[in-house]
Write a structure and sequence with these properties.
Chain lengths: 853, 120
């Protein structure tokens, strides 16, 4: 990539017009394939924002901002040799002079790639203008819809296709009463058949979205109840405050038409198998291209074209574009919809199997060829768990089982799945990035034994993410097939899993790391993997103070100093504030400590206060003052119980039905100090409005008129998971008993650093199995789990109070054991009235001692 | 308890702290002439039991090596940097993950209850 060193005169100019998903993919591919060795790259975008994820556009209304929808980090377009022109539409292509012309001038090109995408088609209807003529394609369109929705009660989408239903979802998430008006007699006429459309309509109507089929809007006039009235034939009408048109897309081919390029019969720049237009220097990719008379409005074929063109421009061989599979799997308004291949059974001789479940409005259709041996299409509404298997059958021509209907029939074991072993090497696992099973195997053969790494190396599952389940199956199957017996050893010192070590500790009553290492491990030191893991197991089982001499060396750095290390080596301190309830006196005490030690303070998400910037030698003094004021350690540093968040509950709230704060205090007091495979978060809400967000916690409790509902295994963070309802209307004692059992069963059976959410998903038998164990005591473990928890509860002691009593333990809290000075390399600056660590860039402004490393 | 045979040509041993300042199987830090030196004491290790290594972590830029967890990886005694978890070999400061990264180490010994650094 040292293109800047080459003489600039040797570089040709490559221009990409359009920075949508496909144009962006082309740029990323060009850079990755070394195009900057040959070209200066200019990218022109009409929109003011760099490429973003249009597939997940409706999430813009449910919390995602523009930047989080961006497809790449901004730095990609800061690569030397790449210039991104935002808000700079290309107005004209001068093919004779080989220049593109924008409002600010012209740029000459050697090669040009058109990736101008498409625009929403709005039928000419009298009276459609302003808020009655909105469209749904760009972030700016969404801003306009948001603006129009501000004072609106009802919104209508014209068009019941894929994008139309997405738009309806967007209106719904803006709080509007949403309606869909479709010209055809069924929803999603391209992808679904009649029964599929009916099932989808039933499901969507249950969600409160109005569906109006076989309606053509003839004019729009002023309404009586709402702003506008949409007039249909037969004097029928529908009133609404805003109208979004999503009646199909048209290729954005205006530039190409003006430049005299050949245009397809249904619009779009005509391209050959190399995506070359009628001009040998101009390519077209994505929705603006017309191949063999067809347009491709999905992201996967667009990406395929982008990859091919990038390869050709880099002088590499590219697979010709020969059309694309338009199979698709979506969640529309929360309803699973899948369409594979010849969904309508248009193929001569095709035969169908159909399954209709009117009770749940589910529908599945399997289309097989005339010989009855191969899958050629399918329609799914209500349950996409059948999709992956059916798609693999079709794409790979796998012979049907003797009872093909079994592929779409419900079974108690869940959707049938084609074992990953049955897939041929050529099977596409990730269609967004065209990753085959063969290339996954190749990555594994070259040493990749980590799923995250595999995704990074092959790009599989980094597009729409739909193949995540299949990818994991293939990955694990291939590892096992290679005899990699998926080594679950903790590390080189213990050939056991965490669960096995837990059992050994428990059964043999092991209380030190040395004893466990001597009996069941190798070597005499351990490492930074097994030491904290065993330290955590010992704490979960016996709950001895972690600062005891034999336990100190096991703890990870945060546990060793009972504080959270921050980036500059200072610590943050979090006193426990049970249930988020705190007296004025205690608030003042925290303030006094923060002021005295100049600590940066921040309210945490768990209803506590975090105090940042303490040096090692200050921790004992800070804690002595906090403990004097009645605080205990908050264990923010441990893989342990963190907080119990609560709403104010029935004592103050007019909606509350139980005293949620009191329950939160009971729970926090019981489980504080409990160490576990990973951190544990709790919450208690006093009514169904759920202000404490209990459904995002490991253990969530929500009050009912009759008692408490228990939710388990939720979490926020990188991969949020909603907690699952586990038991209902429990009294206090039963609630605590079930939480005791649940937590101890998790501690006993989870892998190291595994949150309850991932653990729960890995449980064979799933939620039902867990209910059997915890609620019905199917394994006869209940009493044992409760007793084990009681031991931990009885042995609780604030570790900071324990450490402060013992001068030997305090020895370690010295920045230098031979000098009283603080660390001279720690510098702070003031910002918004508090101290914060100085940034590296700011550090250059002050003299520093020459570094030795 | 002398430590290694490379120490013969050193000019001087300087005392930095007492044996009782050390923490078994863990690290403490001493200030020595403008440098921050982390001391790791592994009383049960077969050969060398005391190690002195630079406290400055080049990856994070913070002085935290002395607060890392000690362990063994494929026979080498190492300390795991507490912020981004690279492993540095106690004997020579070599980073196991980044070959070009190497921490300074000092000769060190226990002499009648006093910890001494070898300085040239």
């Amino acid at each position: 990539m040292n293109s800047t060193l080459a003489s600039l005169k040797q570089l040709k100019t490559l221009i990409v017009v359009g920075n949508g998903m496909v144009g962006h993919h082309c740029v990323a591919q060009l850079i990755e394939r070394g195009a900057l060795e040959h070209y200066r790259l200019h990218v022109f975008s009409e929109e003011p924002m760099r490429a973003y994820d249009r597939v997940h556009l409706s999430e813009y209304f449910t919390g995602r901002d523009a930047e989080s929808l961006a497809l790449s980090h901004a730095s990609l377009y800061q690569t030397p040799g790449v210039t991104l022109h935002l808000g700079a539409p290309v107005l004209e292509i001068d093919r004779a002079r080989r220049e593109v012309i924008t409002a600010t001038g012209s740029v000459a090109y050697d090669k040009l790639v058109l990736a101008t995408g498409s625009y929403p088609f709005v039928p000419p209807i009298d009276g459609a203008q302003g808020d009655s003529r909105l469209v749904y394609r760009t972030l700016e369109d969404l801003d306009a819809i948001r603006g129009a929705a501000a004072n609106a009660r009802r919104g209508v989408v014209v068009g019941g296709g894929l994008l139309g239903l997405e738009a309806a979802n967007a209106l719904k998430s803006l709080g509007l009463e949403a309606h869909v008006v479709e010209f055809a007699p069924r929803l999603m006429p391209v992808q679904l058949d009649d029964f599929g459309g009916l099932a989808l309509k039933a499901q969507i109507e249950r969600l409160g979205v109005g569906v109006h089929l076989s309606r053509a809007t003839q004019s729009i006039s002023a309404g009586e109840q709402y702003r506008y009235r949409m007039n249909f034939a037969n004097d029928e009408f529908l009133e609404t405050d805003l109208i979004v048109f999503s009646a199909g897309i048209r290729a954005q081919d205006a530039l190409a038409r003006q430049a005299g390029l050949e245009i397809g019969p249904r619009g779009g720049v005509v391209i050959n198998d190399e995506c070359l237009s009628s001009d040998p220097d101009i390519y077209a990719i994505g929705e603006c291209a017309s191949w063999n008379g067809s347009l491709f409005g999905l992201v996967a074929p667009g990406y395929q074209m982008a990859r091919g063109v990038a390869a050709l421009l880099c002088g590499q061989t590219a697979e010709p574009f020969v059309g694309a599979d338009m199979s698709t799997k979506l969640k529309l308004l929360g309803v699973d919809v899948g369409s594979i291949g010849d969904a309508h059974a248009h193929t001569p001789g095709a035969r169908s199997y159909q399954f209709i479940d009117e009770a749940s409005a589910s529908y599945r259709r399997l289309v097989v060829d005339a010989s009855g041996k191969q899958v050629i299409g399918a329609v799914l509404v209500g349950d996409n768990s059948y999709y992956d298997t059916l798609l693999q059958y079709m794409q790979n021509g796998i012979a049907l089982p003797s009872e093909p209907a079994g592929l779409i029939l419900p079974s108690s074991a869940g959707a049938p799945s084609l074992g990953p072993g049955a897939l041929p090497e050529s099977a596409t696992v990730c269609s967004c990035h065209n990753v085959t099973k063969g290339s996954i195997c190749a990555a594994i053969d070259s040493g990749c034994a980590d799923l995250g790494l595999l995704k990074a190396q092959t790009k599989a599952c980094t597009g729409c993410g739909g193949c995540a389940g299949l990818l994991k199956q293939v990955f694990e199957h291939e590892l096992v097939a290679r005899g990699v017996s998926v080594d679950k050893s903790l590390c080189e010192h213990f050939a056991y899993t965490r669960q096995e070590l837990y059992a050994l500790v428990r059964v043999e009553g092991v209380i030190t790391f040395e004893e466990l290492l001597a009996k069941h491990g190798r070597g005499h030191t351990g490492c930074d993997v097994c030491k904290p893991a065993v330290g955590s197991i010992l704490a979960s089982c016996w709950n001895q103070p972690i600062m005891d001499a034999s336990l100190v060396p096991l703890q990870d750095t945060n546990d060793t100093f009972m504080a959270n290390m921050q980036k500059n080596g200072t610590y943050s301190v979090v006193p426990r504030i049970p249930g988020g309830e705190i007296t004025a006196e205690k608030l003042i005490a925290i303030g006094v400590v923060a002021q005295k030690y100049q600590l940066y303070t921040k309210i945490t998400g768990g209803q506590r206060i975090d105090l940042f910037g303490a040096q090692l030698h200050e921790l004992p003094d800070i804690w002595a003052e906090l403990i004097d004021a009645g605080f205990e350690t908050g264990h923010a540093y441990g893989k342990s119980t963190r907080t119990v968040k609560s709403c104010v509950g029935s004592t103050w709230c007019r909606y509350g039905v139980q005293d949620s704060v009191k329950m939160a205090l009971l729970i926090e007091d019981r489980y504080k100090g409990l160490r576990s495979p990973h951190k544990l978060k709790f919450a208690v809400s006093g009514c169904t409005r759920e202000c404490a967000e209990a459904q995002s916690k490991d253990v969530g409790v929500i009050a009912t008129e009759k008692g408490w509902n228990l939710y388990i295994a939720g979490n926020g963070g990188m991969r949020p998971r909603h907690a699952e309802l586990f038991a209902t209307d429990l009294d206090d004692a039963t609630l605590i008993r079930y939480i005791d059992r649940f937590l101890m069963f998790y501690i006993r059976t989870a892998d190291k650093l595994q949150r309850t959410s991932v653990w729960r998903e890995s449980l064979e038998g799933g939620l039902d199995f867990l209910k059997d164990v915890i609620l019905d005591d199917s394994l006869g473990l209940g009493a044992e789990l409760e007793a084990q928890m009681q031991l931990v509860v009885d042995r609780y002691e604030c570790e900071w109070a324990n450490a402060l009593k013992d001068p030997e333990k305090l020895k370690r809290f010295r920045t230098f054991v031979n000098d009283k000075r603080p660390d001279p390399d720690i510098h702070f600056v003031h910002e918004r009235g508090q101290r914060r660590p100085i940034m590296a860039a700011e550090l250059n402004l002050i003299p520093v001692i020459e570094e030795l490393a | 308890m002398s430590q290694s045979n490379t120490l013969r040509n050193l000019a001087t041993w300087k005392s930095v702290c007492s044996e009782s300042d050390l923490v078994n199987n863990s690290g403490v830090v001493v200030w020595y002439d403008g440098a921050q030196v982390a001391l790791f004491y592994l009383p049960d290790a077969p050969d060398q039991t005391l190690y002195a290594i630079d406290n400055h972590d080049p990856e994070s830029g913070a002085n935290v090596i002395g607060r890392g967890l000690v362990g063994s990886i494929k026979g080498d005694l190492v300390v795991a940097a507490p912020i981004y978890k690279q492993h540095y070999r106690l004997a020579d400061g070599q980073c196991l993950e980044t070959p070009q990264q190497r921490l300074r180490v000092w000769p060190v010994r226990l002499n009648a209850g006093v910890v001494e650094l070898g300085v040239s």
